[in-house]
Specification:
The structure is a single chain. The protein is an alpha+beta fold. It folds into four domains: 1-136; 143-178 and 300-336, RRM (RNA recognition motif) domain (Alpha-Beta Plaits), CATH 3.30.70; 181-296, no CATH class; 349-579, no CATH class. It is 59% helix and 6% strand. The protein has 22 helices and six strands. It has a four-stranded antiparallel sheet with strand order 2-5-1-6, covered by helices on one side. The longest helix has 41 residues, at 180-220. The two termini are 19 Å apart.
Length: 579
C-alpha cells in the first residue's frame, strides 16, 4: 500500500542504504528503497510506540490492577464499571498503595526517556548517513534556497563570491523574479483548457451516442426504412461519421457581456459558444505567455535566489550557517527533491509578509479551536450522562433506560460523534497553513503537523478530560463547595472510560479503513459523476502523495493519551499499542 502511495521520485537507490554505519535490517532496507525515508520513519515511529507500550502493559497491568481492585471503595462510593480498575477505587485506609503507583510512574518516565534517547541516536546517524551519501545531487541534492537577500547582494557575482568558501564552491546562482503576471496567465490558460476539454468531450459523447443509436437502428431495419430516412434525408445511404450527428444546439453556450467596461454591463449580456471562446482565449494567452518567457529579464528581481553547489557538503554547510548580522536575513533552506514541492507563489514574499501571514493564520486557528470546544465538550459530557441526572433533574429519564442502551450511549456514541466533528478539522487547518507563506511543501507539512497536534491535544485530551469529569465535580460541589480540589483529583480519572472507548474505536476503525481503502472507493465513485474529461480521470488515478502532516499528529496524540493516563487508568495500556 505504501509502495503504491509513494511516487517514484521519492524512492531511494539501494546503494544509498547499504552503508554499515547505520544498523539497517534487511526489511528496513527494502522499505527505504521502495517507499522512501518518510514512509520508513513513519513505520519506525509506529514500531517505537509498540516498543514503549507493550513492555509497560506487561509490567504495569499485573501490578496495578490488583492494587486498585482488591479492597477498594466500589461498594461505599458506588464506583462501577471500568472505574473500579483506576486509582480512584483505592480506599482511604490503603493510601500506602499509592507508593506502588509512584514507582510505576517513575518506571514509565525512565523507560520512555531511554527509548527516546536511543531513537534520537539512530535518527542522528541516519541523517548524517543520508547527507554523506546524497549523490542524487544534480540539481536538488546540492541546491539551497536563500531568502530575504538585501538589495545590495542581489547579484549573481556577489552571491557566488559569498558562497564560494564552502567545499566544492558554487556551480550556479539563479535569481528569482516576480512572475505574478505570467503565473496568472498560465493559471487562466489552464482553466480555459479545462473548460474547452469539458465542452468538446460533452459534444463528442452526444454525437457518438446518436451515431451508435443510428447504426443499431439501421442494422435492425436492414439498411433503414422510410421513418429512419426522414431525419437524415438522402445522407442515410452515405458513410456517416459521428461528426454528422452534431447539432448546433449541442454546443455549450456561455453568458458573456461584450461591454464589460460599462457601468451596467450586466444588462447587455449575450450568449457565446464556449468552444469558440475558449479556443480564441487560449491562442491569445499562448502568444502572450511566449512573449513573456522571451522577455524574462524584464521581470523584477525579488529577495530570493537558488544557489547550486558542486558538492552536497557545501549545500549542507550553507544551510547551517548564518551569513548576515541582521536578523531574518540571508536564510538558507534545502530545496526538495522535486520542483513541484516548491511553493512558487511564496518565493517573492519578504520576511515581514510571511510574519503577518503567520500571525493571521495563528489567530484564525485559535478561533477555529475555540469554536470546536462546545461540540467536543458535549461528547465528553455524554460519556458521563449517568452522573448528570443528579445535577439536572430533567435528565431523570436516563436512569430508566435499559442498561445495554445506556452503555451504548456512554461508550460508543461519544467517539462516533467526535469522529464526525473531527473529520473536517485537518482540511480546514491545511487550508489555513498553506497561506502562511512557507516556501516548500516540507515546511507546510511540518507546520500542519505542529498545529494539528496542538488542536488534537486540546480538543481530544484537555477538553474531554475536563468535560468528562465535570458532571461528577458539579454534583459534588452542590453538596460541599470547599472540597473542590479533592473532587477534581478524584473524578478526573473518570475520563479514562471515554479514552478507553475512543482508543479502541480508533484502533479498529483505522485498521478497517486501511484494509478496505474506503477513500479510494469514494474517489472512484466521485469520479463517475464528476470527471467529464480524460485528463480529469487520469489526474485522479495518478499516484497521490501522503500528507504526513495529517498522519503523525493522530498517532502522537494517542501516544500522549496513553502515556498520561497509564498510571491513572491502567486498562488504557491494552488499547494504546493497538491504536
Amino acid at each position: 500500500m505504501l509502495t503504491r502511495a509513494i511516487s517514484s521520485r521519492h524512492r531511494i537507490d539501494s546503494g544509498r542504504v547499504t552503508d554499515k554505519s547505520v544498523p539497517f535490517r534487511s526489511d528496513d532496507v527494502e522499505i527505504i528503497i521502495k517507499c522512501g525515508l518518510d514512509a520508513y520513519l513513519f513505520l519506525r515511529y509506529l514500531r517505537l510506540l509498540l516498543v514503549i507500550f507493550v513492555p509497560l502493559a506487561l509490567l504495569i497491568l499485573p501490578v496495578l490492577l490488583p492494587v486498585n481492585l482488591v479492597s477498594g471503595d466500589s461498594l461505599k462510593y458506588e464506583i462501577t464499571g471500568l472505574d473500579r480498575l483506576s486509582s480512584i477505587n483505592v480506599a482511604p485506609n490503603h493510601t500506602i498503595r499509592y507508593w506502588v503507583h509512584m514507582s510505576m510512574a517513575l518506571i514509565v518516565i525512565l523507560w520512555v526517556a531511554y527509548v527516546f534517547a536511543k531513537e534520537m541516536q539512530f535518527y542522528t546517524r541516519l541523517r548524517q548517513h543520508s547527507i554523506a551519501t546524497s549523490q542524487q545531487s544534480g540539481l536538488f541534492g546540492t541546491t539551497v534556497l536563500i531568502t530575504d537577500i538585501p538589495p545590495h547582494l542581489r547579484d549573481v557575482s556577489k552571491l557566488k563570491a559569498l558562497y564560494s568558501v564552502y567545499p566544492g564552491g558554487v556551480s550556479n546562482v539563479i535569481l528569482n523574479r516576480k512572475y505574478d503576471s505570467l503565473l496568472t496567465d498560465i493559471d487562466k490558460r489552464d482553466q480555459l483548457i479545462g473548460e474547452l476539454e469539458s465542452a468538446e468531450t460533452r459534444l463528442i459523447r452526444r454525437a457518438n451516442l446518436r451515431w451508435q443509436k443510428y447504426m443499431l437502428v439501421n442494422d435492425y431495419q436492414h439498411n433503414g426504412s422510410s421513418s429512419s430516412k426522414a431525419w437524415y434525408g438522402s445522407r442515410i445511404d452515405a458513410e456517416l461519421t459521428p461528426l454528422d450527428f452534431v447539432k448546433p444546439s449541442d454546443r455549450k453556450k456561455m453568458a458573456r457581456s461584450r461591454f464589460s467596461w460599462m457601468p451596467f454591463a450586466s444588462l447587455f449580456v449575450g450568449f457565446e459558444d464556449v468552444i469558440d471562446y475558449c479556443r480564441t482565449e487560449v491562442n491569445s494567452l499562448n502568444h502572450s505567455i511566449l512573449q513573456a518567457k522571451a522577455k524574462w529579464k524584464t521581470f523584477d528581481i525579488v529577495s530570493s535566489a537558488f544557489v547550486q553547489f558542486h558538492e552536497p557538503r557545501g549545500a549542507h554547510m550553507a544551510s547551517q550557517c548564518i551569513l548576515h548580522p541582521q536578523p531574518r536575513t540571508m536564510i538558507a533552506s534545502y530545496v526538495p527533491e522535486a520542483a513541484c514541492q516548491i511553493v512558487w507563489k511564496h518565493i517573492a514574499l519578504s520576511w515581514w509578509e510571511r510574519c503577518v501571514r503567520s500571525h493571521v493564520v495563528k489567530c484564525l486557528i485559535l478561533a477555529f479551536c475555540t469554536s470546536c470546544i462546545l461540540p467536543v465538550a458535549f461528547t465528553g459530557l455524554l460519556s458521563q450522562i449517568n452522573y448528570l441526572h443528579s445535577f439536572f433533574p430533567w435528565l431523570g429519564w436516563v436512569t430508566r433506560l435499559p442498561t445495554w442502551f445506556l452503555s451504548l450511549i456512554q461508550g460508543a456514541l461519544p467517539p462516533c460523534l467526535l469522529a464526525v466533528v473531527m473529520v473536517l478539522s485537518p482540511i480546514i487547518l491545511r487550508l489555513l497553513v498553506a497561506e502562511q507563506g512557507e516556501h516548500t511543501q516540507t515546511a507546510v507539512e511540518l507546520s500542519m503537523q505542529r498545529y494539528y497536534f496542538i488542536f488534537l491535544f486540546l480538543q481530544l485530551f484537555v477538553v474531554i478530560s475536563i468535560s468528562s469529569s465535570a458532571a461528577a465535580v458539579l454534583n459534588g460541589l452542590t453538596q460541599n463547595f470547599k472540597s473542590i480540589a479533592t473532587l477534581v483529583t478524584s473524578n478526573l480519572p473518570k475520563a479514562g472510560n471515554y479514552f478507553f472507548s475512543y482508543m479502541l474505536l480508533q484502533g479498529l476503525s483505522v485498521s478497517a479503513t486501511t484494509l478496505l481503502q474506503l477513500n479510494r472507493v469514494f474517489t472512484q465513485l466521485v469520479a463517475c459523476f464528476h470527471d467529464d474529461t480524460a485528463r480529469q480521470q487520469w489526474m485522479r488515478n495518478q499516484e497521490t502523495e501522503i500528507s504526513w502532516g495529517s498522519y503523525f499528529p493522530v498517532y502522537t496524540n494517542l501516544a500522549v493519551i496513553g502515556w498520561t493516563c497509564a498510571m491513572v487508568f491502567k486498562i488504557l495500556l491494552l488499547t494504546a499499542h493497538q491504536g
